[in-house]
Amino acid sequence: MKLYDALDARRVVLMALAILIGCSTDLAADEPVAFEKPRMLMLTQSKGYRHGSVNRGGQLMAPAEKAMKRLADSTGLFEIDFSQDAATHITKENLKNYSLVAFYTSGDLPIAESDLKYLLEDWIKKPGHGFLGFHSASDTYKGNQIYWDFIGGSFTGHPWNQNTKVTLKVHDAEHPAMKPFGTEFQITEEIYQYTNWQPEKVRVLMSIDMAKTKLKRPYHVPVAWVKPVGQGHLFYTNLGHRPDTWENEKFIKSIEGAVRWIQGKESGASTPNPDVSAAHHEASKNASEAGGVSAKSLEAERREQELRKALREKRKAESKDKAKANK
Questions:
Q1: pLDDT at 317 (0 to 100)
Q2: Cα(314)–Cα(188) distance, rounded to whole angstroms?
Q3: Closest by CA position to 69, among listed 255, 193, 237
Q4: Distance of alpha carbon 158 from the chain centroid
Q5: Is the dihedral of CA 16, 21, 26, 31 positive or negative?
Q6: Positive/negative CA dihedral, 42, 48, 53, 54
Q7: What is the pLDDT of residues 149-181, one digit of tens each?
Q8: First to last CA, the chain
Q9: Domain architecture of the chain: domains with CATH
Q10: CA 38, CA 214: separation in Å to the nearest integer?
């Protein structure tokens, strides 16, 4: 989709108003325009696994993009542009047109190092600026410490695949991004587990409730969190793998709440809550061990899988050698 040039459009509007009311059209490049809506740039480029939610499939917009366009139009909170060309659109110059950036991405994106650092270390810290990360935004730049330190954690597997029903516990039901969910809810989704998880730097908003979820793991699995970054804000949610999640009214209202929080239209805490993560880790461990799953049993399972894999490879090699010998 062709990006809309917000700055040029602003000048066109100002010139039209000037003709009507006889005012000057001179405007400094960084002068704020009170009547202009905030603008979001949503990047849906995949350099790793491409999710169905961001696969355009010959259409103008992917399911996630369609949902975000509907949200923008129905609420009037922001206008939105979409891109699957990070190298062109995630640049210092282009980011000046936006107060909101959203990533539903994967892999190592082709963003110039200086532009990525500007986004993560300068742009985000400005008042009213916000970054929204969806699902595989945490499966992006996993080898880049600046990025994973910014986002809060890195994808390291999903034992809860896209057809798994999970129960999620909401830790801060008063946060605007969590109000639509209540104190707990069930959803069929692909849920990630993380490495580089930094509970001391984020406010975790919801997690898997291991006691009420069939597939158990003896550790805390966060699902959504927020953090302050300078005078800006970050919101990340693991949800959004399945295209039908983008049709879930509560999920869409959660995104609306996150935007309203970023914009200061609704208040919500962003103070890190590592004590909540610690308590939920202990609860997850106890619930899993009660269900027969422990760190020890998982390690034994991992070793067994490695042995089976080695045996399959050995048999495959022996079969090839036998076939060569019979020629």
A1: 80
A2: 38
A3: 255
A4: 15
A5: negative
A6: positive
A7: 999 999 999 999 999 999 999 999 999 999 999
A8: 57
A9: 37-290 (3.40.50.880)
A10: 42
